[in-house]
Amino acid sequence: xxxxxxxxxxxxxxxxxxxSGAATLSALPRSTPLIQDPHAVRDMRENVLEVAIGHEVRAxxxxxxxxxxxxxxxxxxxLGMLSKIENGITSPSLTTLxxxxxxxxxxxxxxxxxxxxxxxxxxxxxxxGVDVERRGxxxxxxxxxxxxxxxxxxxxxxxxxxxxxxDSDVFPTFQHDGMEFLYMLEGEVVYRHGSNLYRMTPGDxxxxxxxxxxxxxxxxHLPMRYLSIISYxxxxxxx
Length: 239
Fold this sequence. Notes:
Blueprint: H1 2-10, H2 49-64, H3 68-75, H4 79-86, H5 94-104, H6 113-116, E1 130-132, E2 142-145, E3 149-150, E4 155-164, E5 179-193, E6 196-200, E7 205-209, E8 214-233
Antiparallel strand pairs: 1-2, 2-4, 3-4, 4-8, 5-6, 5-7, 5-8
C-alpha cells in the first residue's frame, strides 16, 4: 500500500528495480589495498612528546613537497638524525627544533600541536538528537542530527538518522558535495543513485558520490529509518 501511495504522490507508476551497473564490494579485486586497519592499536608511544614532534615534522615536510634529503641539506642535519626525529626515536634539542622551524617555515610551537591537541567525540543519548531542516524536510523526511565534527583536514562529517512515515513523499533528486553512506535500519525502500536503483532492506548499505541525483524512489515498506553519514569539504555548501 505504501508503495502505491508513494507512486500516486509522485504522479507516476512505481519504477521497477533495474539491475545496477555500479561496482559492488564483492566485485572489487581481492588485492585492493585498504589504507586504514580498523583493528590497529596505536603504540603507547603516540602519547610521548618525541613521537608527536616527529609526526608534525614529517607532516610539514610532506606538505612542502620536499624529501628528507632536501630538509637535511637545508638544516645541515644528517639523514639519520632526521629519520630518527620523524620516527620519534630521539628527542631533538631546542637548537635542532629551531633549525627545523626555520626550514619548514612554521613556528616552533607548531611541533607540539598534536601532543597537546584534544581529540573530539560527540555522544548522543537515544532520542536526544537535534531535529534539523534539510531539502527533504518539506517532503516529510525527518532528519535527526547525531553529531557534527569538522577536522583539521578541512573535512566535515555529519551523521543523520532519517525517518520516513506514511506522510513522507519520494524525493530522488538530492544533490550535494561530498560522499554519503546509508545504512538501512527499518522498513524497505527503493533508493536511486543516478540511473541506478537499489532495493534496500534492514542491514543493507549504500556508499556513493553525493554529487549525482539520489534519494528514495519508492517507499516500499513504512515506517522506514536509515542512517545517513555525509562527509564533505569544509567551507562548501551542502544540498
